[in-house]
Design brief:
- Two copies of one chain form a homodimer.
- Chain A has three domains: about 120 residues, no CATH class; about 120 residues, CBS-domain (Roll); about 170 residues, SLC41 divalent cation transporters, integral membrane domain (Tetracycline Repressor, domain 2), CATH 1.10.357.
- Chain A contains 23 helices and six strands.
- In chain A, β2 and β3 form a beta hairpin.
- The relative contact order of chain A is 0.06.
- Chains A and B meet through α13, α14, α17, α18 and α19 of A and α13, α14, α17, α18 and α19 of B.
Chain lengths: ~450, ~450
């Protein structure tokens, strides 16, 4: 056989890790490329195979002998090969490595445990936290021309080691998803009914690169036990089942809760991650907040004269910024969680802002009165007490407004509001509260600032 | 028929709402009590029925004619009757109103939508957030002597309007739960196999008064699609399915998140609850924290001389207590969430405390150095800068320790750690931080306190 593909050139490019050029070189008839792959050393084969375009890959795969197919698939678990792909920049990886063909995904996923599957995910091209990562190929597929009786026979034959047999997926010869039928419908129907007559043709499905949170939302909203996963050509590659979704919902909630306190999310549980790792998860926000918080020092020093004149003013600073922070944290938590579970929508932002503003005034009025009385009891000075009370009213109203406003802004510019840590809200409020306090104090106590 | 039960007396007691004495009067043969109930006016019947002890109630119910049975069950949705029971004190209610007999529960639950069921729950005697509240009686029951073929026939006959047919519950004549068999097993078995040979006899089950979170945990841990609910006599009364559990997991996470910010949980969503209601959910913690926070004012006034001498000391208060609060909130959030999802156990408390203590020192050291340099840049005074830096180290170490310690204490004395709001942690740290700061400042700056 005469090669149009230059084997020596390709081996040199493999050695040089010159993958961009290499991908270009891989032109030719699928049979030729399959032949070439057979001639390469085993550790090079999976790399070459992953550099093929998706359409090409499936044809080349079919031209390979089954032992070579098997060797390539085994190579997907090889740490060195994973390392090579992992070392590429994410951009490169996205450009060089196509989605795997459905038939290869299915074979591969069946050979691997979920842990192995997860470990090889860089090679597969599925992003972290997508349906592709969490799906299983252990489903039962049916053809639409089968009868209920034939379906039950097939389920009996292959159902034993499938993740679920309660939803059955109807596909055509090219693995396109035609519909879904539940075992419930199968069992409750007469034996001679055709699958195509009882299946649900407008099947809700997700794509391999859909976010796992979106998958969870579908299962939750539709009360499904599983949802089918298709690739970009709409071919069925796996399913995600409800038991995995429950874990995801809990993990996502945990992540949101930790983010809310300025702790970065971790792959591992508390004890599994090292002390250094835990340090890293927390120091980022701490340093950022420290930077932001230096503003409070500058503001106070900027009003040094005022404090020197009336030292007692400093006594009310912690309680004022503390209360403001608490009020703001309440608002931001309500809004962030409401947005996360869909209880609150961005299009209601103005209404909620108005509502929280009014709540802020109410809470501020009540606490302001209490604070005024308390300050008078401490100092016997109505002017200072009035400064404190007024500051409470203003600070708490501004705090609830900031706490409501910031999550909406983050959402509107396209990020996850859960990214805003509560400490960021409270620190922002600390700074604002001091400015308000000194302004009111300066005006009412007649200082020239 | 001669009554040993005095009808006139009972009618008078009903008018007087003298339920304790009334319950005592209801002695006699079930047939007599059934007769008496028939003679009473319809609005009195459900009340009398609910005052019967559980064993008595089931026998009386069986002695009633079906129209009277139906009238009593209808009465369970009557707002006036619910109102009467609702007006009793919780203690009284627990003493007067027994669990409903399984047969009545089943009939009643089938007549009602989930909303109606929820609304009548005071009459049923099931507590808020228990399995009894969220269960459905729409399951398929089998007998253990049935074959797979007979089971499939039964499923076909009655399965149509059941919540699930994927788990089938095997009971004896007295409705005791003998085991569970999945539809998967039924479908995959030969038609002449007996249910008792393939059922799972050590069925995991919950009791009507088990907390819904515990039910969720079971479904989550075992990857179940449903779990059976039994009453105190181990009689099957309903099932809880996985789709309800998903909603509960999300609701519980939301509740924990809101509690964590000092917002009381609400039955209704943000917009459904009134402004006044939202005010109530938030003002409680705000006032409590204000009270606690007054300590900060007293501490500062107690060190008035120190501040008068070195006014610049006041400039570092917000950043110091802010950083301490953030560090403590990180620790408490990690521990509270870890305890909630079972990632952390009380028996590891000491190890975690040690770990967080070490983390506190590391973070404190790093921030302390940064703070020292920043303070020097602001003030050009090494002693004051050193006071600030040392305070950071101590405050952050103490903060992570308090943040770790408090949730464990709450858990050990038997409460839900999620009850501790983050603002409580940060306010506690505010107070502690000020004491540490003034102690260090006093010592290093040579003030006599």
């Amino acid at each position: 056989m005469e090669f149009t593909v230059d084997r020596e050139l390709i081996e040199r490019q493999l050695e040089d890790r010159d993958y961009h050029v290499l991908k270009e070189s891989l032109q030719g008839h699928p049979a030729e490329i399959a032949e070439l792959i057979t001639l390469l050393s085993p550790e090079h084969r999976p790399i070459i195979f992953r550099l093929l375009g998706k359409d090409n890959a499936v044809e080349v795969f079919e031209h390979l002998e089954s032992t070579t197919q098997s060797e390539i698939l085994s190579g997907f678990q090889d740490a060195r090969i994973i390392g090579i792909v992992d070392a590429m920049s994410p951009d490169d990886r996205a450009r060089l490595i196509d989605e795997l063909p459905a038939v290869v995904v299915k074979t591969l996923r069946q050979r691997m445990t979920p842990q192995e599957w997860h470990a090889t995910s860089v090679l597969l091209g599925y992003q972290e936290n997508t349906a592709g990562r969490i799906m299983t190929p252990e489903f039962v597929d049916l053809q639409d021309h089968m009868t209920v009786e034939e379906s039950l026979k097939r389920i009996k034959r292959i159902g034993k080691d499938r993740e679920t047999i309660y939803y059955l997926y109807v596909i055509d010869e090219t693995r396109h998803l035609l519909g879904v039928v539940s075992l419930r419908k199968i069992v409750l129907s007469e034996t001679d009914v055709m699958v195509r007559d009882i299946m649900d043709t407008v099947a809700v499905k997700v794509s391999t690169d859909d976010d796992q949170e979106a998958v969870a939302k579908i299962i939750q909203d539709y009360d499904f036990l599983a949802v089918p996963v298709v690739d970009k050509e709409d071919r069925l590659v796996g399913i995600v089942t409800v038991d995995d979704i429950i874990d995801i919902i809990e993990e996502e909630a945990t992540e949101d809760i930790l983010k809310g306190s300025g702790v970065a999310a971790a792959e591992k549980s508390y004890f599994e991650s090292s002390l250094l790792n835990n340090f890293r998860r927390r120091i980022g926000w701490m340093v950022l907040l420290l930077m932001l918080n230096t503003l409070t020092g500058s503001i106070i020093l900027g009003h040094k004269k005022l404090i020197e004149g009336i030292v007692v003013l400093s006594a009310f600073i912690p309680i004022l910024i503390g209360s403001g922070g608490n009020a703001g944290a309440q608002s931001s938590t309500l809004v962030i969680r409401g947005l996360a579970v869909g209880d609150i929508d961005v299009k209601n932002a103005f209404r909620i802002l108005l509502r929280e503003f009014m709540l802020g005034i109410s809470i501020g009025l009540l606490l302001g009165i209490v604070a005024t009385l308390w300050a008078y009891w401490l100092q016997n000075d109505w002017t200072i007490s009035f400064v404190v009370g007024m500051s409470f009213l203003f600070v708490i109203t501004v705090a609830t407004t900031i706490g409501t406003f910031l999550p909406f802004v983050v959402k509107i510019i396209g990020f996850d509001p859960a990214l805003i840590a509560t400490p960021l809200i409270t620190t922002t409020i600390d700074v604002t509260a001091l400015l308000i306090y000194f302004m009111i104090a300066g005006k009412l106590l007649g200082f020239n600032l």
